[in-house]
Structure of CCR4-Not complex 3'-5'-exoribonuclease subunit Ccr4:
Amino acid sequence: MADGDRHPIQAFSSPLSSNFSSSSSIANGILLNSLLSHLVTAQPTAHSKTSASLGQNLRGMYGQGPQQGHNNRLSGAPGRGQPNIPPVQYQQYNYGQQPQGHPHQHHAHHHQNLQPDPGVHGLPAGNMGHSSYSTGAHQASSPFAGGSHPSGQTATTRGGSGQAISDSWGEQLKLYKQAQEAHQTMVEQHLPHYYARAKASDNKGVVYASEGTTTTEDQEVARNRPSYTTNKLVKRQDWHNLDLSGQGVRKIARALFSYDFLVELYIASNKITVLPPDIGKLRCLKVLEASHNELHELPPEIGMCTNLQQLILFNNHITSLPYELGFLYKLEMLGLHGNPLMNGPLKDEIMNKDTKSLINSLLVDAPVPPAPAPRLPITVQDDVASSLERVSVLTWNILCERYATKQMYGYTPPSALEWDYRKQLILDEIYDRNPDIVCLQEISRNAYENEFSPSLAKHGYRGIQWSRPKVKTLPNNMVGGVDGCATFWKTDKWIVLQKEMLDYSHLTITRPDLKQNHDVYNRAMGKDNIGTIILLESRVTGSRLIVANTHLAWEPDLCDVKLLQIACLMENITRLGDKWTRTPPMAIDKKQAIQGILEEGEERQELPPPGPSQEYRNNTDIPLIICGDYNSTPSSGVYDFLATGRLSHDHPEWLGRKYGNFTRDGVEHPFSIRSAYAHLRGGPHELSFTNYTPTFREVIDYIWYSTNTLELVSLLAPPDKQALTRIPGFPYYHFPSDHIQIMAEYVIRPRKDKRAVVEPDFGPSSRRT
């Protein structure tokens, strides 16, 4: 293709995507047709900014002059509606021969503790200040001159004192010099898309890993949560990088930010005055190059791009930084040279330390945001008889204290990650909601024994906790930190008749039909997930209630193991129901004796004597509630099995493995159950997630209930979506876990007892007969 025929918008590939080939040209053509209708290029207008506007938008601790100091609120405004985009007008450039000697090798990952590579970022001798050309933006003069650099290259000293600059600042100056060279090439030589051209040259002959291969840096720490692609079909994407640099673009339309798969975005050497709040939608972004524009500020939504590793903003008009930059815990290079704010204390912060230090300061010093709108109950049915017995249930994965580390949750302010802070928020929420039954996952034995059990006992609860089976293999000084599942109930309403813990690994490998299958040993045996079942009886009515609580395997590639685990849970619930339909009613004095022993911290209270027990003919007649963290989305086999009561032997999520009768005949359960929040699906209050992190936002926690014995009355509303537009993930202030709590209230349906058969009366003669 001749230079004059090149598209003014180019998508390009890199080691982060696929190899540069003719197929990418097709993608470029499609992208061109899409983007040309959404981009407005430069029009000859003068730039102005009033002092009032400046005063309203200065944020953070690094504002200039009298604007310095802490801001006591979250700043910025919510995203605007879709603007009217006029037909695109773009300038024609004379595409000459690409200049030699200035290939730009842009490293997506800068390791701050390593010496710069002289072969990649060579520092020429001489002045490292701004170049002789200008974009019209205010440029801060560089106080650095040539000298000796620790890496053996030409280096810079500070203020003429002879003190060597830090490696991080030296790296920033190198990138600054390269950004100037790129700007000169695009503006003075009329060669836009500098970075696409450089990538195309750099990628020649490079062999890339096959699709689906993950690198070490992309692998997150193994934790009890699924990855972003759990139970989802991943659409193939052949390009991940986009170069819009050097085209005189003044405004970027919101439509661009629908490309949420972008990994690198280059918008340098334009005349962009505002970075839209929708930039926060690009959560896969690792590199954003926006140097040589006319930006005066960054939107707080930039903090949503937690994967960013390089944020290059050289030679703009930026005067302050939003606190939300503190969320960018993976950021290795924040390029700010040539901006007015570099005349203040920020320069010393970056020169003496590094980007990580600045980001951490913003995270730690950010003010606590105001509490979001309260989550109110949503009435599902309001014409419920007041005489019917009610039962409310809350379930919550509370994020075990040993999992809540800075390495795993780098976007969370340290004070919001502390266990004492999170624990109190969790307890306060339980006190405020006052449910009859509480099911918790990821609660350690220490937390249960020392904090939750004594605290909740003062509010009328009694509970039971089981830790994961690995607790049996640990020394005594470590068992307290192992997490598990805990269930609490109100003692003035319920009596416990039976408690049972299910070790899924043990149950599967001891089943006779599974003993000869290698798959169960290779995949299921090492998983220490558990389920719990308790049988409750109402003190007042004698109605019984089965409550199950579980936490299934988290790994996305173990969907077959999750099916095994949930099948084992439903088998044991069925067996328990069968047992209690055959068991005669318990004597009242025996039920009173069950409640005679007090737990630590529990005060004896005068309770009403229990009434007579109800009798049930079938296991499906006993009301049933199943809570937990299933680590499975609504499109999963686990969800299908619970909702339909059956899963075929050849379901795709068995992965073609052999699991005895389960994969020979399929699995079944006899209960008619439904997810409580399925009632909100498709409506304005639909629950869109229960686990909220930068890389995963899906529903994986549920409250299932038997529809023939329980009737749903109300649900706890989802969190306010507007409050989440600047929160990249939980835990955070006001959100003490990476999961949210969900809660449902039911009434127990009246029993439909079998009517006695009445003989027909045909008069005296028939009676004599």
In short: The chain is about 20% helix and 20% strand. The radius of gyration is 32 Å.
